[in-house]
Amino acid sequence: MIGQMLGITPPQAYFLMLICVLPICFWVCLSDLKKMRIPNKANGLLMLVFLVVGGLTLPLDVFAWRWLNLLAVLVIGFFLTNFAGVGAGDSKFAAAAAPFFDPAHLSFILPLFAACLLGTFAGHRLFRAIPAARRATPDWASWGHKKFPMGLALVGTLVGYLLIRSFPSLYDALFAWTTR
After folding, report:
1. Is residue 5 one of the residues assigned to a domain?
2. Is residue 2, in this structure, part of any structural domain at all?
3. Are 151 and 91 a contacting pair, CB within 8 Å?
4. What is the mean pLDDT of the chain?
5. What was the pLDDT predicted at 6?
6. Would you say residue 149 lies in a domain?
7. What residue numbers bound the domain in which 160 lies?
8. CA–CA distance, 142 with 91 (Å, rounded to integer)
9. pLDDT, tens only, 132-153
10. How far is 132 from 125, CA to CA, in rounded Å?
11. End-to-end alpha-carbon separation of the chain, Å?
12. 21 CB-side CA count, 13 A
């Protein structure tokens, strides 16, 4: 049973993870917007959060298997970085975030990532076209860069997933159509 060590329910466990990753996610977004870089320290902290919070809230077998997510995403990210132009920081962040996801939810995670990617891309390009936004943040490298700060979409996916798992009624509402 999830959360046995702390005596909490699964939604409470996911909410605890969400609260712990939010400051890191904010840092990642700001860094990616300003410098088009995701700090390795942020990735390390994300893994540390999973190590501590996941270790206290997940059953040992689930906790251990979730680390394979990191390895799988790191290998995929290596290929995407070398052959598809994906940033190394983006690949490392995706790998660091991977243990938070249940692989059984992959059919939901990929569309969630696609939605976050489309939304953050459109939002970034929209705000980039607004002179007042550019004047307010003149030191943001992402405004003039040809590449998109993918960290925004990756953070959105992680936060969105943890938020949905934190509130079962939201999860049920999103997936009610699959049980009909």
Report:
1. no
2. no
3. no
4. 93
5. 75
6. yes
7. 10-179
8. 18
9. 999 999 999 999 999 999 999 9
10. 14
11. 28
12. 35
